[in-house]
# Entry
Amino acid sequence: MKQWGLIMVIFLLKVKQIWVTAEDEFMTRNGVELWLNGIPFYGNGFNAYWLMYEASFQTERHKVSTTFQQARNNGLTIARSWAFSDGGSRPLQSSPGSYNDQMFQGLDFVIYEAKNYGIKLVLSLVNNYEDYGGKKQYVEWAKTQGQFISSVDDFYTNPVVKGFYKNHIKSVLTRVNSITGVAYKDDTTIMAWELINEPRCPSDLSGKTLQVWITEMAAYLKSIDTNHLVDIGLEGFYGDDKKQYNPNHIQQGTDFIANNQIPDIDFATVHSYPDQWLNGSTGEAQLSFHQRWVQQHIFDSQNILKKPVIFAEFGKSYKISGYSSFDRDQLYNITYSSIYSSASQGGPAAGGLFWQLLTDGLDNFRDGYEILLTEASSIAGIISEQSQKLSSLKGRIRIISEST
# Structure
């Protein structure tokens, strides 16, 4: 009888392991780990910035559903996407404070469908670049209101521009989903809000301008939403004291250490594109840099920041000279194995999100980095194997945690 009882306990634990979904609770931080439902969370995932845009067309929503289904079938549990489209064609925000409800309904569907597939979302709130509006659109809006703008970096300092951006934060966070009836700020499907995609401030390489902006905006966001995690969206470039770790020692007005030490920032992010940053170097040199880049950020997250870290973008483009599928596969393997090694020891690396996932019928979003999991290629196997491996680590921790 005792043996049968033990078997039943194990069975129930396994059932709970499989069917406890990501929306049960809000993601939290516990030291250097992310936690979900009272236990450490580890998950690989993907970037799909196009989700809201495609979902704004009723006839295209099946592509979002298919992507989530294929991702989940391959062990992926996090999606990073845009919660912005400022000005231009089919905007979410056509002018400061004026929103296109059809686009918002697209984002409603993305959140609704992510919940159905147990996928957690990291939603970015503005772009550093001109794509989908970004900083440039914000400062252009300010110019039309008579503001003197000296450079696009005034995005970080001009009070009118900052007011526009704060209003966008509030508009997105307080949006009530037209499908679920749940405000975004209360939706557990959302894992984290990201302040800005790949912030850079070349007008102030010290990182101080960006430091002030992050401090202000993270605090403002959390004054509206105390439930969700917040990350910056950094690529991982170091400040002056550690610039030797940056590709070619370049600085971008960011400081991986100081910026992420801001109390309202819950976890660090790192991007890695050695094919762009070290263009012209050998594949071997790029892979060597990538390995050092990943390991250094894990080390610093563990020992200095004492916060989790997610490798939120990485990839290798077949459109860049010197490409080989072998080097691409190695770059993925280095990323995933480093994350797994850290996670298996209770370290800060919580997951990796490759750039980018597409499905059939999205050829206009191909950029050289895209992955289609349905294509017969070695990379799809690596993604699936490594993600299932990381997921099984979470499962073993889950059973241990729930059985003690």
